[in-house]
Design brief:
Chain lengths: 423, 309
């Protein structure tokens, strides 16, 4: 949220030039304006939270993701340098109906192509033959706005050749009388189906499997001062059903998982620089023994003529799941000696173990993502942006110790371009 | 499929409400679709003005302000966040005006009664002046210590703040075209639906019912302060309600000041400071980078807005 003063329309006839103002100290008007910003509830901008959207907004985003992993030869993985590309165009539509209803609809079409590491994949749907998959997803949300509160109801659907997900959600937000504090709570339910695909890969369950999850969220956003906002959310999710990776022979996971995530974000707006610094910390833990932390910081710098630049840096670290099995780096990972690639799991003993996985997403690692976004507002309601992110994951970057051995550093580029216009 | 354009063309009608609060006649005008809900919205906006009046009225025994003043010399008051922000704002007014804008100067009204033309004696003023001075109280957010006999009031801030707060409520409730006018302190909530600005007349400081100038304001705020609001004349000399906290006497030099700004609170404080600065008011306003208009004691008009007249 930008706590900039409402356009004062002072430009026409102040008799001042830019040169005058830059060479002077702060005027009394500046000082009083800064003091007035501390007055509660004074700057309820038209974009205030509990308001139905004004007009109709159409937005288009295009995402391109491509990843690569070093090829050092003795690691259980296949393929060469660049392995997976995702292209995802997304379309969004948002409109207000009267003063108190809002509708948001969005759709995305992902196409995934390329090889994926055979045993240590970062995307499901991996196979040694190379994969090509499509995902179509759509969601719709209806929101009823009251004077200080809103209630939203959403539905979502997504489908891939082997995976279908349906979800519903309900959320409620309420602001205090002075608008300095907003409470939010929400709940969601999703029902997923994993089905056999058309024979290009082997699934290890044979028939269709299901997964159901519920999540609950409570959160609070509080304006500490006119320039500082703190937000804190706790989300608890509980899921039951099939969590295994159906493309992996040695993958057996518990049939339930409970996740707890706590996110805290602090925003500070610098009047002098006309910029916002935000810092986010997220702590995550689940019943599989995983703990993850995310540290993220972002500087949103307003520039003249509607430009904004946003450099950002994110650090993520996690330990491995209790039943994650380290890769034996002494062995090569060809399918022929698959059984010996995981020291804890062999063809002779894996049946005795209740749960095991070699999915690198459940291994211990750290990841650093520098990013840069540039945004331009052409006129009121017309915005274009471009974001570049470079994700790099290494076992050794795990916070407080070595990560899981045997996994080569992992890199990914994410390019996202967006355009939106409000009519 | 929804057709948002059809929904958007719902005809907006102009609704006008007038109400008394803060010892003024006030006005709220805005465009809205239907009459039934327009009344509800107006009620919420006006309720915010009444809330602030009830909280900061010096005439009400049960107001927060009266509670603070009553504890002067006896106990420190721990104030709520809103009052704290207003006190901090008042501190900024004091420092930016070189000590002229002082929310403790209200005690001088005990000597100046604008209902009858009588100049207080120096003895009367000398008895009151020791009770005036922001620097004499202790403000350590959120604790205020007022020495015995001293008082604060938010005259010169409260009404303007109420206009902004009521404006916030109006924007929250979805008003995009309208304004609120609290006794000449105006917060504009957005232009007419066809984007033409509101034309706001500025009262002539000497001619009754005459307009000095007309300002086109699409959004933001406009405040005016003048020596004509409360005054008496004695022996050809005008004594107005704007009192210099150093001498205890009404200021002279300007008849009226108007400032246009993003917030009514700031525009209003700048008007008051300019009035207090008298002959230096114009040069004070000239460096504020906000449009203004001043009428000096000779009736001469100056300021960047003067060219629009």
């Amino acid at each position: 949220m930008q706590l900039k003063p409402i356009d004062p329309h002072p430009a026409e006839n102040t008799g001042q030039t830019a040169a005058d103002s830059s060479s002077r100290k702060l005027s009394s008007a500046d000082v009083l304006m800064a003091a007035a910003m501390a007055l509660p509830g004074l700057l309820a901008l038209p974009a205030h939270a509990e308001n139905a959207p004004e007009g109709t907004t159409l937005s288009f985003k295009y995402l391109n993701y491509s990843d690569s992993q070093n090829d050092s030869g003795n690691i259980a993985k296949t393929g060469s340098g660049s392995r997976m590309t995702v292209n995802a165009p997304a379309l969004g539509f948002s409109t207000g109906i009267g003063e108190s209803w809002g509708v948001d609809i969005s759709g995305v079409y992902d196409s995934v192509s390329g090889a994926s590491p055979l045993y240590h994949s970062t995307l499901s749907g991996a196979s040694g033959k190379g994969i090509k998959d499509e995902r179509k997803a759509a969601d719709a949300k209806l929101t009823r706005y009251f004077s200080r509160s809103s209630v939203g109801f959403g539905v979502a659907y997504s489908t891939e050749h082997d995976y279908t997900s349906r979800a519903v959600s309900l959320d409620y937000r309420i602001a205090t009388d002075d608008n300095n504090t907003t409470f939010a709570m929400g709940t969601g339910y999703s029902s997923d189906r994993i089905q056999d695909s058309n024979g290009t890969v082997i699934l290890f369950f044979g028939t269709q499997q299901k997964k159901r999850s519920n999540d609950f969220m409570v959160g609070v956003t509080h304006n500490l001062t006119a320039n500082d906002i703190i937000q804190s959310n706790i989300t608890y999710a509980t899921g039951k059903g099939y969590f295994d990776d159906p493309y992996k022979q040695f993958d057996k996971r518990p049939d339930s998982r409970n996740d707890l995530a706590w996110l805290t974000r602090i925003n500070h707006y610098y009047n002098g620089a006309d910029a916002t610094l935000n810092f986010t910390y997220r702590y995550f833990t689940n019943s599989w023994g995983m703990r993850a932390q995310t540290f993220e910081t972002e500087w949103r710098q307003q520039l003249p003529r509607g430009w904004m630049v946003i450099p950002a840096l994110r650090y993520y670290t996690q330990n491995s799941a209790d039943f994650y099995s380290d890769l034996d780096i002494q062995n090569t990972g060809s399918p022929a000696n698959l059984n010996t690639s995981y020291p804890g799991i062999t063809s002779t003993n894996y049946a005795d173990k209740p749960f095991y996985t070699a999915d690198s997403r459940l291994s211990a690692f750290g990841a650093i993502t520098p990013g840069f976004k540039i945004r331009k507002e052409f006129s009121k309601g017309e915005i274009a942006d471009l974001k570049l992110e470079f994700y790099q994951q290494r076992a050794s970057w795990r916070l407080g110790g070595e990560g899981s051995p045997g996994i080569e550093p992992w890199k990914a580029y994410i390019i996202q371009a967006g355009y939106s216009k409000t009519f | 499929m929804l057709c948002p354009h059809a929904l958007k063309t719902t005809a907006l009608k102009l609704f006008k409400f007038s109400f008394a609060a803060m010892a003024c006649q006030n006005e709220l005008q805005f465009y809205w679709q239907d009459e039934a809900s327009a009344h509800g919205v107006a009620r919420d906006v006006i309720a915010e003005v009444q809330r602030i009046e009830a909280k900061y009225s010096r005439y009400r025994d049960d107001s927060t302000l009266t509670g603070i003043n009553r504890s002067a010399g006896m106990a420190a008051s721990t104030v709520d966040a809103e009052t704290a922000a207003l006190l901090t704002y008042a501190n900024a007014c004091y420092s930016q005006s070189g000590g002229l804008f002082d929310i403790t100067s209200g005690v001088l009204r005990r000597a100046w009664n604008f209902r009858e033309p009588r100049i207080p004696t120096q003895l009367e003023l000398d008895a009151l002046l020791p009770l005036v001075g922001w620097q004499k109280l202790t403000w350590q957010n959120p604790v205020l210590w007022l020495p015995a006999g001293m008082e604060i009031d938010f005259g010169g801030i409260g009404k303007e703040y109420a206009a902004d707060r009521a404006g916030s409520v109006a924007l929250e409730r979805g008003i995009r075209h309208g304004f609120i006018n609290l006794g000449g302190d105006i917060r504009v909530l957005g232009p007419h639906p066809d984007n033409t600005p509101w034309l706001i007349g500025i009262t002539h400081p000497r001619k009754n019912n005459a307009v000095l100038a007309s300002m086109a304001i699409p959004s933001g705020a406009l405040a005016t302060s003048g020596d004509y609001e409360r005054f008496f004349e004695l022996d050809g000399k005008r004594y107005s309600h704007i009192l210099d906290p150093r001498t205890g006497y009404p200021v002279t030099g300007l008849q009226s000041v108007t400032v246009v700004g993003p917030l009514c609170t700031v525009a209003g404080s700048l008007c008051t400071i300019a009035m207090l600065k008298g002959n230096e008011g114009g040069s004070f306003l000239a460096v504020q980078e906000l449009p203004w208009l001043a009428v000096d004691s000779q009736g001469r008009i100056s300021g960047p807005l003067a060219v629009k007249i």
